[in-house]
């Protein structure tokens, strides 16, 4: 039983009033459901009104508290009013929606003495950890507006790419993923325009469509393309001229549609001359970056180059999205200790004009053997509020760890802190070898301590032991690389495959990763 106190008045019961839309009614139902869990019933002590208000920015909400008056939750659109109901619970009641089926209601008095508002920093917010992103309920509770599952219209509708979000040149032109079309060929332009228009006819309510290069470096070097590349100082100029032409044509009949294209690998460098049309979005990709250091760290050479490119695009484009990388795609299970940079990087994006975020995680595995669940939750919160301070960020981390892993959570936090500190001594790419992130000798020196931390976490886990066991596979993976043991390796293989954890991007064959149980080569260390 918890006490609700509004403007110093104790509230034993509430009356929920909503507008007529399905979103408003759903928001009211959800709010009342949780208030009942706190022991607050239906009655006349306080009226809480939830409604959509056109003055509130899209997906934002505003909670107003007045003396001797109703408490009002105003939402910016259908999603905004639902976010407002959950925002009331998280801000005032301390409720946390960590993972599907793993929630913390909070404790103590629920004190509402002043209003609160939140407008998400990014217009598009997606996480790609199946543990959360494929659960629509979790996405709504955590402000993710581009889940893997379509958002129904009564909850605000989808905010996604129609018929593919990346590498769409193959579908639009017929050129296979191993190659690229000639973007100076007028017939290719006609084909892409026709393909885009056909897609929009199938999706008349779409607002975003991808016209993006295939996933390879084999861009056309014919005389026309090469001349444009030289004039623009980057192959992005040829691509952008092409995409602008598509955007100009589409704008005639679809003025609200945005054409999305990449600044990725060979097109990451901004062009010297051509600027994106107002209905073109540039999605810059951080695949070459180091994720042991903040992207704003100019002393890290990989990140300094990315920072330069983002700033150059910022000068010429008003709609920039980011495709970020937040896992080790070569090895999904062993540690990828990037928790110290997630907050810095999200704030960096918000401060540099980025309007949409896609931090790509372990998209192929329903469960993770590392800390995907924690990372998924933290990223969702950071996309809502990238300006949170370090204390708020680590408080969210600790709350998650305590609820998800049980009484031994501090030992897991110690493991996270140690791996993050050790990774700061290397450049950590998103296709890194485990010992390129933290050297073997570092693990060997701490082996007994790391064993003890995981032992204590399991011992104290109680009904959370399954979660601890699954996350411990990252340490077991490393120990097998330190001390090859075919029998133990076979046990780990059976467990991982039974739990349906994927080894790496596209890797389902154990032998490709542990064919001889030898340690991987040392990685790139700080100069």
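Sequence proposed for the structure above (527 residues):
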């Amino acid at each position: 039983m918890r006490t609700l106190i509004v403007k110093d008045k104790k509230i034993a019961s509430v009356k929920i009033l909503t507008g007529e839309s399905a979103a408003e009614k759903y928001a009211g139902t959800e709010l009342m459901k949780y208030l009942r869990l706190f022991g607050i019933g239906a009655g006349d002590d306080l009226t809480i009104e939830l409604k959509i208000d056109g003055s509130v920015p899209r997906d934002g909400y505003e909670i107003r508290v007045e003396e001797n008056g109703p408490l009002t939750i105003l939402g910016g659109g259908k999603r905004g009013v639902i976010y407002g109901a959950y925002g009331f619970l998280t801000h005032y009641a301390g409720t946390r929606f960590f993972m599907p089926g793993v929630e913390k209601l909070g404790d103590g008095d629920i004190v509402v003495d002043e209003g609160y508002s939140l407008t998400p920093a990014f217009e598009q917010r997606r996480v790609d950890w199946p543990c959360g992103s494929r659960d629509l309920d979790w996405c709504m509770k955590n402000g993710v507006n581009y889940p893997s599952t379509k958002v129904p219209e009564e909850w605000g509708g989808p905010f996604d790419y129609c018929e593919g979000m990346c590498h769409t040149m193959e579908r639009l032109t017929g050129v296979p993923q191993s190659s690229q079309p000639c973007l100076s060929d007028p017939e290719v332009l006609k084909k892409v325009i026709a393909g885009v228009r056909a897609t929009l006819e199938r999706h008349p309510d779409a607002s975003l469509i991808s016209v993006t290069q295939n996933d390879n470096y084999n861009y056309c070097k014919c005389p026309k393309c090469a001349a444009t590349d030289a004039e623009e100082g980057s192959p992005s100029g040829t691509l952008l001229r092409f995409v602008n032409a598509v955007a100009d044509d589409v704008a005639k009949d679809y003025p609200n549609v945005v054409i999305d294209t990449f600044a990725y690998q060979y097109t990451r460098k901004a062009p010297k001359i051509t600027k994106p049309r107002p209905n073109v979005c540039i999605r810059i990709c951080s695949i070459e970056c180091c994720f042991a250091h903040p992207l704003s760290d100019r002393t890290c050479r990989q990140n300094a180059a990315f920072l330069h490119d983002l700033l150059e695009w910022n000068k010429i484009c008003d709609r920039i999205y980011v495709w970020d990388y937040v896992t080790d795609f070569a090895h999904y299970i062993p540690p990828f200790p990037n928790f110290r940079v997630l907050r810095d990087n999200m704030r960096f994006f918000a401060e540099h004009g980025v309007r949409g975020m896609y931090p790509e995680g372990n998209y192929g595995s329903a469960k993770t053997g590392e800390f995907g669940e924690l990372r998924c939750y933290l990223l969702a919160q950071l996309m809502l509020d990238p300006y949170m301070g370090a204390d708020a960020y680590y408080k969210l981390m600790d709350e998650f760890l305590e609820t998800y892993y049980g009484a031994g959570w501090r030992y897991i936090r110690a493991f996270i802190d140690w791996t993050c500190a050790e990774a700061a001594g290397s450049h950590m790419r998103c296709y890194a070898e485990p010992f390129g992130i933290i050297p073997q000798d570092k693990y060997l020196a701490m082996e007994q301590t790391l064993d003890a931390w995981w032992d204590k976490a399991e011992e104290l886990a109680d009904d959370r032991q399954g979660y601890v066991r699954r996350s411990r596979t990252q340490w077991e993976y490393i120990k097998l690389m330190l001390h090859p043991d075919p029998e133990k390796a076979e046990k780990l293989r059976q467990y991982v495959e039974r739990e349906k954890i994927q080894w790496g991007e596209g890797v389902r064959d154990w032998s490709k990763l542990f064919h001889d149980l030898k340690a991987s080569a040392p990685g790139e260390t700080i100069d």
